[in-house]
Design a protein that fits this description.
The protein is of the alpha+beta class. The chain has helices spanning 9-25, 27-33, 38-47, 65-78, 80-96, 101-108, 211-215, 234-261, 277-309, 316-342, 355-367, 374-385; strands spanning 116-119, 125-129, 132-142, 150-158, 164-173, 178-180, 194-204, 208-210, 265-266, 271-272.
Length: 395
């Protein structure tokens, strides 16, 4: 495809915005099915969404990541579960682009539209063998796995005494694992975050990427993917991937709450809720917290990307700030939805497709992700600010 005919990242963002009404209409269907409908995934694919962070070597856009996160936010505003899956599945091309070129070709050589899911927690058993590793076990919470043909699975490599010596991510084709349908939750019900099960699966060395070079920003994939996108820190890219849909869900809840409040009448006080100054106060606080969350997320990613584009070092204080603001973005978004839910009225508590109620369930479920542990991330920022030496893979 020539540069003149190629779809731009801005065009993808506009196409995603145009899909929002249809995704919103399917939100209840998505929850009932406990996974994102194939129709929605297909529409996102046709809009070019999954190409945003894919390398140009395989037909992707290798786009400015702020545009990817803006698109995620638009999707999550319409449907939280779809936004969550889009964000998680959509970021995996970025990770695969860091792998040995042989692994990339195995994933995308025959079909550049191939999608990848993940479960990064090192819960399985890893055994070093000649030419690679064998892995066995169950990896939980693989969002959108029904829509993927490969999986990224975390694992600890141990020495002869059983002590961990390396953390790797193993790239495994769909033919070598099964999916156990176990996802049945209160929030993010439609994310289809099921279990992936492997039994003595051989993974060659070139499909087992260590976190060491990833953290050092020096990976095999740079050989064929020189774009600045692939010089960003894993921790920033992936934690922002988890926080952004939560902020988008909160923004959708806010818009739904404001629209409903314009029409609500509170019998007990004999007034339109829109005239209640306390409701007005909640609207102001929620709006400010959601704005602050998004502005900080997008600012940090933008600054890191600009440095990478100039070939400059990505300073640890900025990486620590990005991690700080990511967990606080989630905290602000959840708090904003709580404020709105407390004043949404009794109808919001009924079983059914109430936009604020669904958002309330979704953001609290998303808050439970390990990336959203605020204390751990905030301590890292404090250590950085005090000039202490930080040794943490999540920066």
């Amino acid at each position: 495809m020539s540069d003149e005919s190629a779809q731009s990242a801005e065009e993808v963002l506009q196409a995603v915005r145009a899909l929002a009404p249809a995704l919103r209409e399917r939100a209840a269907e998505t929850e009932a099915a406990r996974k994102v409908p194939e129709t929605s995934v297909k529409e996102l694919e046709e809009a070019g969404f999954f190409r945003l962070l894919q390398p140009k070597a395989y037909g992707g856009l290798a786009a400015d990541p702020t545009l990817f996160y803006a698109a995620v936010k638009e999707i999550a505003k319409a449907c939280g579960s779809t936004g969550w899956v889009a964000s998680v599945v959509g970021v995996h091309p970025w990770h695969v682009a860091l792998y040995d070129p042989r692994a990339q070709d195995e994933v995308w050589g025959a079909d550049p539209a191939t999608r990848i899911c993940s479960s990064y927690a090192p819960t399985g058993k890893v055994t070093a063998v000649d030419g690679g590793f064998t892995i066995s076990g169950t990896w939980r919470f693989s969002s959108g796995c029904d829509h993927a043909d490969w999986a990224l699975l975390g694992g600890l490599v141990t020495d002869a005494d059983g002590r961990p010596v390396d953390m790797r991510t193993f790239l495994v084709p769909r033919s070598e694992y099964r999916i156990d349908d176990v996802w049945d939750t209160v929030g993010l019900r439609g994310s289809g975050s099921n279990d992936i099960v492997c039994q003595d699966v051989f993974v060659p060395e070139h499909r087992a990427l260590s976190f060491g070079p990833v953290t050092a920003l020096d990976v095999p994939g740079h050989e064929i993917n020189p774009e600045p996108l692939y010089r960003l820190p894993y921790a920033t890219v992936f934690t922002t991937t988890i926080a952004t849909p939560i902020v988008g869900i909160a923004e959708g809840a806010y818009e739904g709450y404001v629209a409903a409040t314009r029409e609500r009448f509170r019998v007990s006080y004999g007034q339109q809720v829109a005239e209640d100054p306390f409701a007005q106060l909640r609207i102001a606080r929620a709006a400010s917290d959601i704005d602050a969350a998004w502005l900080q997320l997008s600012r940090n990613v933008s600054e890191l990307y600009e440095l990478a584009a100039r070939g400059e070092e990505l300073p640890m204080p900025l990486r620590a700030r990005a991690r700080r603001d990511q967990v606080l973005a989630t905290e602000r978004a959840v708090g904003a939805v709580d404020l709105l839910m407390e004043n949404a009225g009794g109808s919001a508590m009924r079983t059914g497709p109430h936009v604020v109620q669904r958002a309330w369930r979704d953001v609290h479920n998303g808050r439970g992700h390990a990336a959203n542990d605020p204390e751990r991330a905030l301590v890292l920022f404090g250590q950085s600010a005090l000039g202490l030496d930080i040794q943490d893979t999540m920066l």
